Each structure stands twice: as C-alpha cells, then as structure tokens.
Amino acid sequence: MCGIVGYVGPATDGTALDVVMEGLARLEYRGYDSAGIAVIDGDHVAFRKRSGKLVNLRDEITGRPLSATTTAIGHTRWATHGGPTDDNAHPHLGGPEGRLALIHNGIIENFHSLKTELLAQGVTFASETDTEVAAHLVAAAYERTHDLTAAMLATVARLHGAFTLLAIHADQPGVVVGARRNSPLVVGLGDGANYLGSDVAAFIGHTREAMELGQDQIVTITPDSVSVIGFDGTPAQGRRYHVDWDAAAAEKGGYPSFMAKEIDEQPHAVADTLLGRTKDDGELVLDELRVSEDALRAVDKIIIVACGTAAYAGMVAKYAIEHWTRIPCEVELAHEFRYRDPVVNGTTLVVSVSQSGETMDTLMAVKHANELGALTVSICNTHGSTIPRESDAVLYTHAGPEIAVASTKAFLAQITACYLLGLYLAQLRGGTAADEAQAVMRELREVPDKIQTVLDRMDRVREIARFMADSRSVLFLGRHVGFPVALEGALKLKELAYIHAEGFAAGELKHGPIALIEPGQPVFVIVPGPDTPHDLHAKVVSNIQEIRARGARTLVVAQDGDEAVVPFADEVIRVPRTPPLLQPLLTVVPLQVFACQLATAKGLDVDQPRNLAKSVTVE
Ligand code: M6R
User: Fold this and answer.
1) CA–CA gap between residue 607 and residue 202 (Å, rounded)
2) Which residue ranges form the domains of the chain, and what is each CATH number?
3) pTM for the whole thing?
4) Cβ(16) to ligand 1 under 6 A?
C-alpha cells in the first residue's frame, strides 16, 4: 500500500530532498492518493504534503522550496483511515512545535482507544488518521527519553496491528528510525549514506546493497551506521543481500507505460524463472527449496493460497499439479483460508503465491498454515519480502521488478514456478510421472519464444481494443486451464478500464450466464487446443455457436491451425500450438494487451488505476 522512503547522508550534502523525491517517484505505484515529505532544516522539522499524485507535492515544493538537508523521510499514501486530503497526507507531526515527524504504512488497529487517551491528555489532532496517534506517542516518549530509538521502542509496545513507521526528530539530525511489524521495510546500505524503503525500488538509483529486517524490529540509520534491535530491546542482525536488478529495470525504457513494458518482458520472465533449475539431462534441481525430499514425498495434500491474479495463477497450476503428481490440490483465496477452519496437518503443503511477498491476506494465511503445522512454500518475486521469510521454503520467480499495478509478467512467472514445483514433486514420485516431468520441461523451455510470437502478432488486438473503447461490458469464457485465464482477462479489464467484465467457465454457460448474451455483447472465448483430452475443444466450439446464435460478438483465442473455430468467430486471435497445460502462458497475453490498450484508448492511467495499490499490505 503506502510507499515509504527515508534517507540520511553526509553532513555537507544537501541531496536528501532529491533522494527522497526520487524514491517516492519509484514507489508511487504503492499508493498515490497523496504524498508528503519531512526534512530536518537546521533546528526544526519542515514538511510539505499534498493530496493527489506526486506531481502535486512536486509543485508545492517548487512554489515553497525546502532547504537543503541531510535527513528526510517521504510517503505516498493509499488512504485507510481518513480520506485522501492534504491534512490526512503524511507526515504527521508530534511534540512541542511539531519537532517530530512520522510516516506510516499499515493500520493501527487500537488507534481509537489510544486517541481517546491522548485527547483526554489535551493532545490536539490535525487529521483523521490512525497514524497521527503514533506521531504523538513517539513525540511524548521522546520527551521522556531524549532518544528517538528508545521513543520508538516505547511506542511500538502500545500499538496493535500492522505497521511500518519512520520518524525523525529535530533534536537528532542525521538519524532516521524505522520500525516494522507485518509490513515491509528494507534498508539500503550506501557509502556514507543510508536509506530506508518499503522496497528496494526506493533506493535502487543509489545502492544495490540491501538489508532485510525481521518482524518486530527497529532500525536506526545514520550516515555511517545501521543498528537493529527487536521490539524487546535486544540487539538483532539484519540479513544483507545484493539486489540483482538495477535502476534501469525499474524505469519505462521508452514504453508508454510500465504495463506495456512488462507485457513485453514476459518471454524473459518465463525464461529467467526456468533458468538454472534443470541439469543437462533435464532433471529438475530445486536445491534452493531447502526442504528435505522425504518431507516433500510425504505430502498428501496441497493448498495454494493467494489473492487476485496470483490466485488465478494458482488455479491454473492446480490442473497441472494434480495431473502430474496425483496429489489433491486446492486453491483458496488467502483471506478465506485464514478465517475458516481448514483441514491442514503436517503432511499438507501450503503454497503461497505472491508477487510482492507483502500481501497481508496471504501473509496471514501463511502464518495460520504454520500454526497448523503445515509445510509452507512461498512462490515470490521479491527478495527480502515478508512472506518468504515466514515460510519454510521459497521458490523465487525471476520476473524482475513489476511496477504497474496490474500484474502481467508476474502472472506468467508464477504459473511457471508453480509448474516447476509440481514437476519436481512428480519427479520425486518417480515412474511415469518423472518421465512426463522431463517431457514437460522440454516443452516449457520453448514457451518463451512462443510468447514472443504472440506479442509480435498483437497489432490487430490493439486495433480491436481501440474500436471497443466504448464497450460497457465484456465477457470471457474458458474451460479447463482456460477458465482461470478467462477470470484473469476479466480482472485486467475491470481494474484498468473500469468496465463490467466477467469470466466464466464455458461449461457453466447454460447454467445461467447465457442469459447475459444479447445482440452485440462482446465475448472472448479461450479455446483449448484440438488435442486437449475429453473433446473439450469441440465442447467449447459448441459454446461459441450457442452464444453466436444469440447475437454475441465472438473474439476467439485459438491455436494456429484450428480451423473449426473460424465459421463462428467474428475475430480469431491466433497463438502458437502448445500442449494443453501450457496454453495459459500464451492465451492470457492477448487479453492483457487488449485491456491495456482499451484503457489507454479511454485516456486512463494504466499503471495507476483508481482506488488500487500495487501491494495490499492491510487485511
Ligand atoms: O503481490 P501479490 O501477488 O500478492 O498481489 C496479489 C494481488 O493483489 C494482485 O495480483 C492484484 O490482483 C493485481 N492488481 C492484479 O492485476
């Protein structure tokens, strides 16, 4: 959700403002309904904040410049408590003359009782946020301790919920203190300067050396030092790591949007996720999992937990994993899994799928699975994030940074990584399953080139999208692995173009949804390849005929050489031939391009759709 940046640099340097503004620009995808910055200016704290996108804050600073400084914190907000107004924007001030500034990501669940207590003490509030409570508490603790780290330590003991907090105090220039509980915060390690950020994008333009923090830890940075303690006050260590991508990867590189760039990066996302995970003879090696083969062999049930697009990746994987391993596999929205009473024990493998590794609903599901004794594996795209840390093992996708709010390349990389896990389990089981695993790996290695072929053919899809910019509703039908693809196509259109879109299992059509079909209703149909078992191809072709007979405009995604669809299609969008279980890696691409182009044609910001944030770090 919110984006957080902190910086301390050399005493002679005045770049803190620039560094933090640059970091905010890179983190704006995390939340963009208001933004603010606070700096230590001589003997006081100065701040600027504005509702709306970051450009409003920039204009404000141009009109009312801030002094050069060495210490700054900045925030881009996704509103939870209190609307997106100037007053509710962060930072929030506390203490006499507002000598403390604080920014926050997350939700302080007991803010109401704390606020009542502070009001009774005569504290006045300038906003409707939960954050301001923390600002007043840290400021009051500072008056007692005269040490910002000690003040933060005293405050976190009183807070319930999930939070990342950063604070500066006018009495301690050259110091930024951060705290985290169930909310992201990483440290950037510079040379004579140090950084804090919600993710490494905050400081990737300055350093690729980072430090991961654990849960319930407080970090204090100065230009020359980084020290970490637990919420119990005992010293702690962060884990250092090198970020394997650079600032260029987090820039648009000539594309009109991050989404357009990320769609085009999909062949690499899949290829890189496959890279280094097989021996020359095709045997899969997932040593990085660090789970004993015996523990994996004992698995008798798999539950995939995830949200949104990641859950659709899980739905695709279910078909493949059950087919290859014969282990029952369920897919559940993480927030539903967490608060029912799932049947989970020591032989259950709970696989979480998350691009950001910070989705709170998924994190809570993983923690619950751990409590129930399950083996937990995270499929994740973000090193140093929370969900892999909370899991027994992790299999990273290597999609590179995904900045656009709408997930695209992460979806393909997630399916790929889930498949690797499924094939690895099949390999461990031996026999025909192991032989099939090797054959599938050979096919998978051809997929990146096939995705490129799909991308090279997208001109007509863009044209169709432009023609359809005024559509009020678009339906998507799919069957087997094409069903989650239909759901994903509809989600992309909803979140980017704000039009009614729904995905259906094609077999479900006659059980209700066919009533929606009226003359001119556009329907995308994802057609399984003609070699899909159980005559599914013929069944879906029949569905196309049924909706066309009722006036639907049919936009058919079909394999090269599939002529059976032609008589019933208003448009045929071709993808290369590939085995049934791998088809989603190709068929989803035209749907992503369609949504991106239609939203662009409507003049919408595809990278930052309304009301959304990239990483949903509240429940
Ligand atoms: O970071 P995660 O993969 O855990 O995020 C899960 C969903 O919030 C995410 O996929 C969301 O649905 C996307 N905006 C869809 O494009």
Assistant:
1) 17
2) 3-243 (3.60.20.10), 258-445 (3.40.50.10490), 456-601 (3.40.50.10490)
3) 0.87
4) no
